[in-house]
Design brief:
Largest sheet: 3 strands, antiparallel
Distance between the termini: 21 Å
Oligomer: single chain
Radius of gyration: 22 Å
Strand content: 15-25%
Number of helices: 6
Bound molecules: manganese (II) ion
Order of helices and strands: HHHEEHHEEEH
Shape: globular
């Protein structure tokens, strides 16, 4: 798998996340004793940061952070699953679950059977359900439609010219949610999950505070 490149100079359109580079950047801060709040809570759960940090400490930090990312990735996948089931339902042993038409209570009960509750506890599933209901209402208003058709995990594929090799490459991708409105317009929705709350009240004209974004996503663009 390769990222898309600019035809003009062959550089990647989206920066690639390179773990070694990320930790090289973070290490500069750590050596000065600077940790993000997330890092501090993860690496020093008792609240005590040692005065002197060793090579062994830094290696351990990297392992712990990578373990946290793995867990967050799995949680993100479960959340995407909830959204998918909500909009498209699920067929199990020939029985169709039309989650969207259920009451909130029924929905929670039935969804919980298919979600790893150790990764996503029931309260978070409830949040996700609320989010889906709001998204549905929002889309109906925004797209000025009474009935929307949903296509989850929609696979798209096609050919493109690879500017580096001048050969035709096959591209394949998956869209989280394709929505078809009353007038036949197609809308593309991509779900994003974050361990931090994006719903922070911000004064009009003010920027979202930096801590609202995952430091890893932010730093991917810094090198
Ligand atoms: Mn997504």
């Amino acid at each position: 798998m390769e990222g898309l490149r600019r035809a003009s100079n062959g550089t990647l359109i989206f920066p690639e996340f390179i773990v070694e580079n990320y930790f090289k950047e973070r290490r500069k801060d750590w050596e000065k004793g600077n940790f993000t709040l997330t890092e501090f809570n993860l690496l020093f759960p008792d609240g005590n940061k040692p005065e002197v940090l060793t090579e062994t400490d830094f290696k351990e930090f990297e392992t712990k952070i990578q373990e946290m990312w793995d867990a967050q990735g799995k949680i993100g996948t479960e959340i995407h699953k909830i959204m998918q089931y909500y909009f498209s339902g699920k067929i199990v042993n020939g029985k169709e679950f039309l989650f969207r038409s259920y009451s909130d209570e029924q929905l929670l009960h039935n969804l919980s059977r298919f979600i790893n509750l150790e990764l996503v506890p029931e309260e978070r599933i409830e949040d996700a359900i609320k989010y889906c209901r709001n998204l549905e209402d929002y889309m109906k208003k925004a797209y000025n439609s009474k009935h929307l058709k949903y296509f989850s995990e929609y696979v798209v594929h096609g050919e493109m010219l690879n500017p580096e090799t001048q050969e035709i490459d096959n591209l394949i991708g998956m869209i989280d949610l394709v929505v078809l409105d009353d007038r036949g317009n197609v809308h593309i929705i991509d779900f994003k999950t974050s361990p931090n709350d994006y719903n922070i009240a911000v004064e009009e004209g003010e920027k979202l505070p930096l801590y609202a974004y995952s430091p890893a996503k932010k730093l991917a663009f810094a090198y």
